Known about the structure:
The complex is a heteropentamer, with 1 copy of chain A (213 residues), 1 copy of chain B (252 residues), 1 copy of chain C (222 residues) and 2 copies of chain D (258 residues). By secondary structure, chain A is mainly alpha-helical. Chain A has helices at residues 3-38, 43-58, 61-74, 81-107, 110-118, 123-153, 165-176, 179-211. Chain B is α/β, with parallel strands linked by helices and 252 residues long. Chain B is built from 9 helices and 11 strands. In chain B, the strands form 3 sheets. A 5-stranded mixed sheet of chain B has the order 9-8-10-7-11. A 3-stranded parallel sheet of chain B has the order 5-1-6. In chain B, strands 2-3-4 form a 3-stranded antiparallel sheet, with helices on one face. In chain B, strand 3 and strand 4 (38-39) form a beta hairpin. In chain B, helix 6 (153-161) crosses helix 7 (174-181). In chain B, 51% of the residues are buried. Chain C has a single domain, classed as MetI-like fold. The model of chain C has no long low-confidence stretch (mean pLDDT 91). Chains in contact: A-B, A-C, A-D, B-C, C-E, D-E. At the A-C interface, helix 2, helix 3, helix 4, helix 6 and helix 8 of A face helix 3, helix 4, helix 5, helix 8 and helix 10 of C. One adenosine-5'-triphosphate (ATP) sits between chains E (26, 29, 31, 51-57, 99) and D (144, 151-156, 181, 183).
Amino acid sequence: MGLGEFLFLLTGLKWTVALSAIGFVCGSVGGLAIALLRTSGVRGLERLAAGYIALFQGTPLLMQLFVVYYGLALIGLHLSAWVAVSIGFTLHASAYLGEIWRGSIDAVPRGQTEAASALNLKYTSRMKDVVLPQAIRISLPATIGFLVQLIKGTSLASIVGFTELARAGNIVSNQIFEPLLVFGIVGILYFLMCWPLSLYGSHLENRLAVASR
Amino acid sequence: TRPASAITTEEIKARGKIIVGIQGDNPPWGFVTSDGKQDGLDADMARLYAKELGVTVEFVPLEVSNRIPALTSGRVDVLFATMAMLPERAKAVQFSKPYVANAIVLIAPKSVEIKTNADMAKVSIGVAKGAAQDTQVTKNAPAGTTIRRYDGDAPSIQALVSGQVQAIGGNIFYLQRVEQARPGEFENKLEFQKLYNGACTRLGEKEVNASLNAFIDKIRANGELKKLYDKWMKVPVHQFPDSLEGIPFSAS
Amino acid sequence: MNYVLDFTPVLDGLPDLLAGCLGTLLLALGGMAIAIVIGISGVVLRDSRHKPIRWAVKGFVELIRNTPFLVQIYFIYFALPLAGLRLDPTPTAILALGINGGAYAIEIIRGGAQSISRGQVEAGLALGLHKGLVFRLIVLKPALRAVFPSLTSQFILLTLTTSVASAISAYELTSVAQRIESESFRSFEVFGVITLLYLGISWLMMSFFSTISTRYFSYPVK
Amino acid sequence: MTTHASIANAATTDPMIVMADVEKWYGGFKALSDINLSVRRGEKIVLCGPSGSGKSTLIRCINHLEAYQKGEIRVGGTRLGDDSRTIDAIRREVGMVFQHFNLFPHMTVLQNCMLAPMRAAKMSRSEAEATARRLLDRVRILEQADKYPAQLSGGQQQRVAIARALCMRPSVMLFDEPTSALDPEMVKEVLDTMIGLAEEGMTMICVTHEMGFARQVADRVIFMAGGTIVEEAPPDAFFTQPRHERTRKFLGEILRPH
Amino acid sequence: MTTHASIANAATTDPMIVMADVEKWYGGFKALSDINLSVRRGEKIVLCGPSGSGKSTLIRCINHLEAYQKGEIRVGGTRLGDDSRTIDAIRREVGMVFQHFNLFPHMTVLQNCMLAPMRAAKMSRSEAEATARRLLDRVRILEQADKYPAQLSGGQQQRVAIARALCMRPSVMLFDEPTSALDPEMVKEVLDTMIGLAEEGMTMICVTHEMGFARQVADRVIFMAGGTIVEEAPPDAFFTQPRHERTRKFLGEILRPH
Ligand SMILES: Nc1ncnc2c1ncn2[C@@H]1O[C@H](COP(=O)(O)OP(=O)(O)OP(=O)(O)O)[C@@H](O)[C@H]1O
Ligand SMILES: Nc1ncnc2c1ncn2[C@@H]1O[C@H](COP(=O)(O)OP(=O)(O)OP(=O)(O)O)[C@@H](O)[C@H]1O
Ligand SMILES: [Mg+2]
Ligand SMILES: [Mg+2]
């Protein structure tokens, strides 16, 4: 494999980073909203959030992207590839993060919410200052785990025409016919992208652990 | 279902650009080079056609599985995407006249005797999922033959090389790749079918189809197609049939 | 000019698709079984007294979590034969899914174990239970309860990831669907139907997990 | 004492807390039955009774930490419904010290005390900090201000919980065994703090078995058993001439030194 | 009483617990300094002192829940090292009741009590259940046997914690404020239980401020302040003629009714 092929993989990497960034940002915002709805205590909203989670956790991301990009186009709604992946990743990531965070919010002892309520803290402050900081600690390993899967899941964006890292690897592999070598390098590049996230996760974990033994 | 974005040659000319669906990872038909340029026989065909219309080309690299959806949903105007002309496909898209021929073959070790379709039952066979060789091997192999379907050409060749299968179905370019990995061990055993590739448009879009057919007739006549054959296929230009069972070349 | 949806090829293939669903379920359940074993024993080993074991577990987690599943499954399928170990597609897929899911499960369960207050562990120790028993009897259940939604999510993801196994020709829903699609070229119809089938399988899994959750984790908490 | 909200300014003849026919079930277990209680503004009530008799449950109902199934509770004239507005209004006036402290583990002692004043009462940071430090000092724990709850002894945690509740300057305080984890010296200091609050006119309901405190401060002592109020009387009457057999038995244990 | 392990069978002239020059640091904070203490087999010690003086820390060191930085601790002649075998063996003989109870939330009361006897002491299920029921009855909580900890009141939880520790039939018991959450009636019952244990010859160290109990049961009272042992004496001498100023001040608060 020559330098040219390697540089080609790096341009794919660039797209992967951009797609991951979209997934992270949109997914986290959406996920937080879903988690809060799911734990709101309002029956209707909780049902709605649970339905959303069941629907978008249960369908493959690839299918979501396909439906948003090609399916909607079929009925005349032509979304650009960027909009399509943004929608697809948001639906997917917010469902998963929403459920992960919902679980950790539920795992914070009830006495904590009670104490906050008794101090007359409003919902926002109760969540932001009391519950979420403790929930984050429980959900951190799972969250990091999902985010690295999301990075790798961006490879599915090739279905709407992005030549991201995995697709670039495919192209190179079909040119030089050394799939083990090419996918080995692609694997390493993914590793280099995901690993810092893992490291950051453990760093954060240690910091939170110091605060509340 | 409402009409997808139908388009005419006039509209393409007015836009100054034709959007072509093409394969990105299937040399020498259609592939992206390591400096990111679209290349291959299909790419050159598309460029010639664009020149004919006097417009520029925008390539949309596609995978095997989203070629037809990209066309039917209006994401591209036309496919030059190694689309083998098959009757079932012709129900979903409108083929033009054929512009290149391909053959589907079975590759196996020299030591294994495979002379007839029935002999295929002796081995496990790998194919690229959804490609023409998949269809052909599935159709011709005796019932009960182990057929393993992989994601694309490279993995199916890798499966042969690493011994996960004993034979693979492939096209005329496969053997040369297998030779690179394991020289002297394999040979072409059976040839199933001559396949023709055509350009595709949406069903019912008469104008673009007609213009494509005229274009193909023209390059066959003026020697442009021969140049492409010399560049990519390295064989003489094939004889193309005037009709294929169940595959109309012109839109009705 | 009209793309007319035509479901007949998909409906004709429905028996095959349903058989594919069973293949998917087999891969998913097999993978999950391995993953949960790896997950729980990984959490224990990660806390081992012996440094090499701890590092091995951490290394395993980092390696598996941070590389694509496709690379892992290709590695087991294509590279291990070079070392003399040749596995068929289905065992390969189950093994790969189990290893992959296991790495995530280790981390998820560990997160749960961290949320258990030190007082719980101390109480167990003070009663004369040794460390392993304290984990098994006292920490594990509340820890699993705390992260059960995350664990469920991971296993749903694992279920959907089985589709990647079609890349090495394992028999499951996606491979069946791709075959039908390559014969009929009815992409929209095929994709639509298998999306519903995947949704059905996921819902089956979700209700399986929620049954477990209400059966085993329904003790009241403060 | 500063009274700074509607509830506190209601006509002073109104009772501050009224519970009428309150009944509370935990699933199939009846934890409170027929609770009728009226507490005047500035009144100090001591609540005692055997373990499991419903004392914690009762005071948790007052600021709606537990929903109840029958009857009515009014605080400062506001009926405690499910409407979050009224619940907020009530909680602004009602402070609570929990039996299990429920400190926020991810915040230091000082942060625990400053959170609510800043977020709920919109105090400025410097004002909140000054208040917090003053009250932490009052319960003799200022030097631990930068520690986390997990680094404190049981008694220290309890004192932080008291300071945290007082930082909101509530007009009603509910104490759930505020001295259980304290040594006698500290008990005295905390009780002195509470006596100080009492003298400032705060309305107080205190679950405690410190009978010295009851004698000295309480306007009324309420004795609960099995989820009902068995007896209520001024401390003198309560200790010297209890009317019910159950009360006498209970007092017998208290007054006889072990 | 059945003594069923090596430690309990060691020569009876040996002291049961020896702490020599023990020092314990939490990071930069010295929680215990120069602790020297020897407890004979069957001796009852009451440990008291102001909040934060290191009482909990001291007893937690004895069964090695806290590591200490200097000195030596021996239990039943076995030196408490880092070897997990000896630690496990010691913990099986040393029961502990925590200040915060630490019940297992996912087990019913009965299961909480049966767990360690079955898993650590290899008792049969039926024997473990019988023991558990007997001891739950002794602390008057048998009727709650099938509830989960979260469904119990504070005092009920505390009694479960005591029963749970006793189920292991330890030869040494460490109590950390075992009556803090109890009402006076219950305090009496629990103290009676403890007196019963004391009479059976159990070695006990009890952090408590129930001075009645100290008077009646303790062989020695130890007063701690600021991480050191300030004074130790038999109860009579301790209450009537305390030698140190600090002790006198502390006792002043206890003995004067509020
Ligand atoms: N969540 C619950 N589910 C079922 N029963 C409960 C629950 N919470 C409390 N109880 C029961 O309700 C009764 C009253 O509990 P409460 O906590 O009010 O008692 P208490 O008077 O405060 O006792 P203590 O002095 O021991 O704290 C107890 O018998 C307890 O077992
Ligand atoms: N993890 C920790 N980090 C730092 N300091 C700690 C930690 N745990 C306890 N301390 C400090 O050590 C001292 C002794 O604590 P300990 O819990 O032994 O007190 P105690 O005598 O039991 O008090 P109480 O009667 O209030 O329970 C206290 O001042 C406490 O703040
Ligand atoms: Mg209570
Ligand atoms: Mg203590």
